[in-house]
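User:
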Amino acid sequence: MNFAQVIGHYSTKESLIQSVQKGRIPHAQLFLGKTGWGGLPLALAYAKYISCLNRTETDSCGECSSCRKYATFTHPDLHFSFPFPREKGEKSSEIIGEWRNAILDNPYMGILQWMQVLDAEKKQANIPLAECREISKSLSLKPFESEFKILLMWLPEYLGKEGNSLLKLIEEPPPNTVFLLVTENPDKILGTIISRTQSVRLKPIEEAALYDFLIKNEKLEEEKARRLSTISQGDYTLLTDLLTDTESPYFELLKAWMSICVRKSMPEIVAWSEHLGGFSKENLKGFLLYSIEILRGVLVFPHAEELIPWTGRERVFIENFNKLTYSINDMELIVKNIEMALSNIERNGRVPLVLTDLSYLIVRNLKK
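Assistant: Predicted structure:
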């Protein structure tokens, strides 16, 4: 993957490129950013640029022997480590084929999508001690072809206490060894690991970059591209969900939910919550993020109608919702409660209970 294929993050790309050109490559770097922001593709492009034999001022050449091997992620000096369920083995190398195919298909994937690839959505993933020992063994060898050996570890938060076995290696690695760690939840990483790395803090993908991507790659009309690039809030994963239906596959679900809450029908709320309990976490996340953006539109509409990016049925919904009696504080509380529910679901809270409680809070705020 080249830098040119990574959506946005222009200043971060430039900083990474400069570190290579000036020969100041930190031996351990931690890419921090939410799922969908592009931490993994950025780290992949950086690794490729480090190893490229004929790199340009802006990107890898894409033609040398190193780049050709990076095209399939089979370069002998590129090592991967990632979480996986126990039944798949003890080391990443045992399922490296599935991993390569997954990141070739979608380098922006999250842990849930990866577990779906492994057909293990309900299993617990981690990076076990045997994997840590394999890392130490692999990195103790000299590079085969490139100047550098590179370990790209995806989601080091799944190391747990096993990460202590890597502390000395990260702090004092063999010559020409580079650690690239990509995390979505730095709070779950051992502080002793974080202190041994240099942080690369990512922001949401720039709206203009997403707009250009939709125009050039998805061939969307300008109005639709502008709308989706705004709604997705810099999250490529959410953008791909919305692309399945430019008016959103979640609209009818949100409309039914708000209708139940307005009617204050608790039996229907319980049934609705149980229904959503059968959704995958990725779909639930997409739905709740979509709901947050629509309700924020409800908040903004009375004060700055021209700033609302929504059109069609969503705009009609926002206009109709504003006919209800509620205060700004009520709507802000509803949005905050949805954000809290999203956080609880990401921490493996029981979905029907979380959504029932959330719906009850919405009823109370609307009732005011």
